[in-house]
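Hey,
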Amino acid sequence: MNILRTTISILLLITLNVSAQLTHSFEKTAATKQFGFTRDVAVSGDGTVFAAHGENGLCAYSYNGSSFTNIANIDNGGYATGVAVSPDGSIFLANAQGGLRAYSFDGSSLVNTAHIDDGGYASGVAISEDGTVFLANAEGGLIAYHYNGSSLTNTAQIYDGGEYRDVAVAGDGTVFVAKGGLIAYSYDGSAFVKTAHIEDGSNSSGISVADDGTIFVACSGGGLRAYSFDGSSLVNTAHIDDGGIALGVSVSEDGTIFVANTWDGLRAYSFDGTSFTNTAHLDDWGYPIKLVTSQDGTIFVANGESGLAAYVYSSSTTHLANISADIPKEFRLEQNYPNPFNPSTNITFSLPDKKYVKLEVYNSLGKVIAVLVNEEKDAGTYNFKYDASRLSSGIYYCLMRAGNFSLSRKMVLLK
């Protein structure tokens, strides 16, 4: 393994001139290694981070933007491989050697509320909007469960051979499974029907479905792929392979795709419908397996033997320029110009002294869709050129926070 890592390092150095052109960057904000081999991670609506820690079960963490605090853990045996949180706050744990478990969390302790084991090797779990729990079972196929708060009931199961590695559910209820390639199933509450299957030699490992229905698949033998689905067929619309072993994928609110790539680290991509562009890359020499993006844009990574890590993703400082030699007298966030804009606009802010600055863009629902600046800056007046080409027309808000100063500006994107 050391020889392989060294070879990859050399290749990365050779391509350094390409990496330097990346438009965005990652910054690690926190990491913890308290329990075993971290296999998966999920985030609840209130920001609690839950991690599946292999032989150490399920752990809950609070995260304050700069550190993790372990607030609860529970181990019911087996080997925890996947975790998901339902809208009502219930936590579901896929256990390779122990089936599926449900837990409640009151802010300080985890309680196992239900358990079912249908054999096989549970590897991934996902929850639909109606609360149905779907389990990818490497040796038992795809299973659907109903959870009533105290018990789990198997309502449907289908197995076509091979290893079912991960599962994701689209907004319309379609269930997608990583199994060699990609399979789509419909589910009516009592049975599965296979509606489409594509086998492209990708050795698929992780799945995430965007709000527009695009399916992104991390392929352990072939990078990242995008698929469209029309209800009866799957079409591979884009593919990129930057090496390593891609195992996990997550899509943020603004459509950025993040990939956990063992031996290659963490990568971000933009997607225009037909092709990917690598926008950021960071390799901390861990063992990234799965990842999730929270509502505020934080990326949480299950980093295998290196534990749990948090990252922020922001535009490269090449977009940020100090435009005045004068020291401002006060904190200011100017109205962006032009406004309305399409697709880019300038955002100017001033700092009377050295401060840690966070500049974020929110949509009209109050969700963070971009972190533009997240670093300490010297006193001065700065301009950030923001490109919103991936966003749809609408009203957005730019929020600046520096010390005790906080101010937002309304921005209008018209395409």
